[in-house]
Amino acid sequence: MGVLSRSTMLTSWPRGNRVALDRAPEYPAFREVSMDDRDWITRLFDQYPTEISERTFGSIFIWRDYEDRSLLSRFEDHLLISWRKEKFGRMILAPVGPGPAEVIQKLTSPALLPVLAFNGVFGIVEPLAADLRPKGFNPQSVRDEWDYIYLKDDLVKLVGPKYHTQRKEMKKAASSLKREYLPMSSELRDQCLELQETWCDIKHCTNDNLSEAEDVALKEALLNYDSLGFIGGVVTVDGKVQALSIGEKLNSETAVVHFEKANPDMRGLYQVINQQFCEHALEGFKFVNREQDVGEPGLRRAKEGYHPHHFVEKQILPFK
Q: Which residues does 303 contact at the CB level (< 8 Å), separation at least 6?
């Protein structure tokens, strides 16, 4: 990517998006995201698509109550979105616009360092990482944050010996549980909230800040499901919701799964909701992004056990 002048940046924007960006305050000021931002931010994301799971409007909105996440600002016709990572504190996601490398360089210039409002940039992927290196930056790959990308058809068909375990668990569920897959609906919301409460009680999700924040984010997703345009499904057992999955469009080829929960006392339900959700809810998508494993060994084994097609190698650029 060549260096873009400010005039080139301005002419590269469709007029509607440039006007909409004025709804975010000029850096270094930030403001909270609201549902009123959904349309223009979604159009902007469609214009500058990504593979990272965090950068959807739904994700930004439902995580807005977690400390420094989901605050909005603008800098030279780019959208800045704050995003907190436990190891690094307050970060921003890679700037959204035509010249993110140039924006990062300017944000860290001596003139702006005194008002630097974050500790670095998170969610850098290629080719942005390559554009930054000649400018003297050295983004660092963070394996715990890599997104797992699967071929949807692999998750639906589960063909071959490498998926033997998943098929065995699904067979176990079929033989012992009277189950049914249903699309997510407002009528099922209360049962989904009840399932989440049960799951949290079993997993003690209030024992750390991030797990507690995920609980809040999932409830936000359920309460604002229709307004956010989410895609979802449930598995009922004897008429009661015992597993759920919620996702949304990430880009033209990929859906992202933000949440997948199942009653841990019912064997095989995780495998069932994974397969059924992909089969019934994700028509038209080629890939499924199932997010990162955050370094948790059990979660890593489970995600690797589904044999990802590739990873999104997210990188971080700390400034402090």
A: 148, 290, 293
Torsion over CA of 241, 244, 249 and 253, rounded to 10 degrees?
-120
Using CB atoms within 10 Å of the CB of residue 195, give its burial: 0 to 12 exposed, 13 to 18 middle, 19+ buried: buried
* Residue among 20, 69, 62 at smallest CA distance from 228: 62
Q: Which fold has domain 148-291?
A: Aminopeptidase (3.40.630)
Q: 96 φ, ψ to 5°?
A: -100, 115
The gap from C-alpha 127 to its chain's centroid, in whole angstroms, comes to 20
Residue with tokens 């995600």: 303
As assigned by CATH, the class of the 6-145 domain is alpha beta
The answer to whether the predicted template modeling score (pTM) of the entire model surpasses 0.85 is yes
Kindly report the number of other CB atoms within 10 A of residue 66's CB atom: 17
Distance from C-alpha of 83 to C-alpha of 90, rounded to nearest angstrom = 6
Domain boundaries, the chain: 6-145, 148-291
> Does 148-291 match 6-145 at the fold level?
yes
Cβ-based neighbours of 173, under 8 Å, separated by 6 or more:
179, 266, 267, 268, 269, 271, 272
Q: Yes or no: say if 2 and 17 are a contact pair by the CB < 8 Å rule.
A: no
pLDDT digits (tens, 9 = 90+) for 242-291: 999 999 999 999 999 999 999 999 999 999 999 999 999 999 999 999 99
